[in-house]
Write a structure and sequence with these properties.
By secondary structure, this protein is an alpha/beta fold. 33% of the residues lie in helices and 23% in strands. The chain contains twelve helices and 13 strands. It has helices spanning 20-23, 31-38, 50-65, 89-97, 113-126, 150-153, 214-235, 253-262, 274-277, 284-294, 343-346, 348-360, and strands spanning 3-12, 17-19, 42-44, 74-78, 103-107, 132-140, 158-168, 173-181, 189-192, 209-212, 245-248, 303-310, 314-321. β4 (74-78), α4 (89-97) and β5 form a beta-alpha-beta unit. α3 (50-65) packs across α4 (89-97) and α7 (214-235) runs parallel beside α8 (253-262). It is globular.
């Protein structure tokens, strides 16, 4: 039987930060209010598009795996922030990488997207359709934000993470997964006024807006992620005691803490980096996994659980059996184009536009 081992990993975090104190200069909030409710201290703001973030994360993952672009059979990008709807963003990443032999597709399952994409690519490896794939979570959430709305502008950030999976005879990689969707409540988390459902010629929105019903999302996220994780653990023939590391979606520190409590995990068994980056949607899980490896928190043969919840309302959990290698085979020295602006400076036009829209309403 074939498996799909994770052999490479990489992330791309744009350098410009937007701190809680920065937010407090143009919206009614402060560091204490944001930190106590979310656990977030700062988030990154990208000066490049989603494809460039995704491609650099992919290059770093390929270097870690020691493979060339020509060897890649599939590029799967989880994103809700595509550069273009037609053609897809994955085709642009293929172009940047020079991965001319790779099929390429985008998948939009919001914050659960990376798990959806990883399961899809893993299934293709396991049936023998492909041998090597790059799975990427990449988001530029700052593009959607209404910077006049305190409830949502504090939550999101930009970034990308990627993994390389390769066919292997050993039982490694994503072994079990449970994905689902609670569509009856899909309206509690949505980006309004965007897509072909909007009126193209009349009443066009002056600014995009994220509808985010926090308390309801919290309850549903904890329940769905917990149930999916329990299902996966049981199906894999494991117990909670067998879990070495939980790499959850980084949406809210309270949600992560609730999952940690449910599975009775110690702090060193839970990967948390939301304080640095905020919610990067589909990119949170691969970024967190990459940083766990960088910090030496993943050991050969570890049992890793991951879980996520996003708009749709999509949800999912997965069990990853880690292989023997926890250090990269090589390094990619490419960097993003230089940027001298702060996060607030990059967003100046968007912030001014949103605040003006409020004044005129």
């Amino acid at each position: 039987m074939k498996y799909a081992e994770i052999t490479g990993w990489g992330k791309c975090m744009p350098p410009a930060q937007l701190t809680n104190d920065d937010l407090a200069t143009f919206v009614e909030t402060n560091d204490e209010w944001i930190t106590t409710r979310t656990g977030i201290k700062a988030r990154r703001i990208s000066h490049v598009n989603t494809a460039e973030l995704a491609a650099l994360a992919a290059k770093r993952a390929m270097a870690a795996a020691g493979i060339s672009a020509e060897e890649v059979d599939l590029i799967a990008i989880a994103t809700s922030c595509p550069d273009t709807l037609v053609p897809n963003t994955a085709s642009k990443v293929q172009q940047i990488l020079g991965a001319k032999n790779a099929a390429a597709f985008d998948i939009n399952s919001a914050c659960t997207g990376f798990l959806y994409a990883l399961q899809n690519a893993t299934a293709q490896v396991r049936i023998g359709a492909i041998n090597k794939a790059i799975v990427i979570g990449a988001e530029r959430m700052s593009w959607y934000i209404n910077w006049a709305r305190r409830e949502t502008c504090v939550l999101f950030g930009d970034g990308a993470g990627a993994v390389v999976i390769e066919a292997n005879e050993q039982p490694t990689g994503l072994i079990e997964a449970k994905l689902g969707c609670d569509s009856e409540a899909r309206d509690i988390l949505e980006i309004r006024g965007f897509g072909t459902d909007m009126d193209r010629y009349e009443n066009a929105p002056t600014a995009l807006d994220i509808n985010f019903m926090g308390p309801d999302i919290f309850k549903r996220a904890v329940k769905a992620m917990g149930q999916a994780s329990s299902h996966v653990i049981e199906k894999a023939g494991l117990t909670v005691e067998d879990v070495n590391l939980l790499v959850p979606h980084q949406a809210n520190l309270r949600i992560i803490a609730a999952l940690q409590k449910q599975f009775k995990l110690a702090d060193d068994q839970v990967m948390v980096n939301i304080q640095k980056y905020g919610n990067t949607s589909a990119a949170t899980v691969p970024i967190a996994l990459c940083e766990a490896l960088e910090e030496g928190r993943v050991q050969p043969g570890d049992n890793i659980m991951t879980a996520a919840f996003g708009a749709g309302l999509t949800w999912g959990a997965g069990y990853i059996k880690w292989g023997q290698r926890v250090t990269p085979l090589g390094e990619c020295h490419d960097e993003l184009p230089a940027n001298s602006k702060t996060g607030k400076e990059l967003l100046k036009t968007a912030i001014d536009h949103c605040l003006k829209s409020v004044e005129n309403s």
